[in-house]
Amino acid sequence: MELRHLRYFIAVAETGSLTEAAASRLHTSQPSLSRQIRDLEDRVGTALLQRSARGVELTDAGRAFLDHARLAMAQVDAAVEAARRAAQPAKARLALGFLTGQEMTWLTEAMHLLCDELPNLQVTVTSDYSTELASALAHGKLDVAFMRAEPGYGLEYRVIGEEPLVVLMPSDHPLAARKAVRPEDLRQQPFIAMADKAKVLGQVIDGYLAKTGVEVDVTQRVDNPAMVMSLIASTRAVTLIPAYVQNLMPWSVVSRPLQGEAPTIDLVVGYSPGNAAPIVKLFLSRLEELKANTTPRKE
Fold first, then answer.
1. Do 98 and 73 fall into the same domain?
2. ∠ CA(267), CA(148), CA(160), 5° rounding?
């Protein structure tokens, strides 16, 4: 079995189409890709994919194989990145990632803490979706990231904060006149739900709505905070979202707390257990100090 077999299989699994995977992801012909997949299945000894009316779907064996294939490719990418770093002149480097918006709370203090320890430290900063940060950590492109605890990437996480969810709505919405919003008040409102790239947040929201017995009218599914706020303002919808997003709100959107026990979501620092860089160990050893010195911004 060769690495290209894993790469081809992952591309087909993620696109759900041999044609799309061949053309847009792998830049090869469909017949060639089909041969590679058959060769892989022969080596594994069972069918990994099956054709359906919607394209190509994973078998049970394929779903089990996919997680391991992704991890294997991530480890290869991490090995390549480690080799490239080792070949460069010795200099302390740290690649930091942030769930979009969280850098406003954590970056300044993190830089103070690190630069006091290592004045010549070179830091790069990335802001992205939590799932993209998880992939970058697994592939060795980031060292640590402030994110959600994403499953399936072989990462380790340390909780550094717990954020309550608040209700976002247009600034002139009738519910904005209240100090707090009751869960049942969400029933009559168009609701912006979370898309796949905010899966962890979506699960927390769905769990809260199920627990309170509230069925919402989902009109859109998005995962970008800016798009969420744009849709709230333009469609007069509401949503539930972590309180840190209050740092990003335009004048046209306001937030209100939930009445009663509000759901919460953990903010974590994620890292790969295979990353043995001394700077990563130093950063992790100072997390408690970072938490103590950082006060989340409020509305």
1. no
2. 25
Alpha-carbon gap, residue 143 to 64, rounded angstroms: 27
Residue 6 gets which letter from DSSP? H
The two tokens of residue 134 are 């998880």
Does some domain include residue 299? no
Number of residues that this document lists for the chain: 299
Query: What does the block give as tokens for 113?
Result: 């803490």
Please indicate, yes or no, whether residues 237 and 219 belong to a single structural domain of this protein. Answer: yes
Which residues neighbour 211 within 8 Å (Cβ) at sequence distance 6 or greater?
none
173-204 pLDDT, tens digit each: 999 999 999 999 999 889 999 988 888 999 99
Q: Which of 253, 148, 170, 263 is nearest to 214 (CA)?
A: 263
Helix, coil or strand: residue 272:
coil
Q: How far is CA 23 from CA 3, 53, 58, 73, 122, in A?
A: 19, 20, 20, 21, 38
Q: What digits encode the pLDDT tens for the residues 137-164?
A: 999 999 999 999 999 899 999 999 999 9
Rg for the chain, CA atoms, rounded:
22
* Cα→Cα distances 137→141, 250, 260, 270, 299, Å: 6, 31, 37, 8, 31
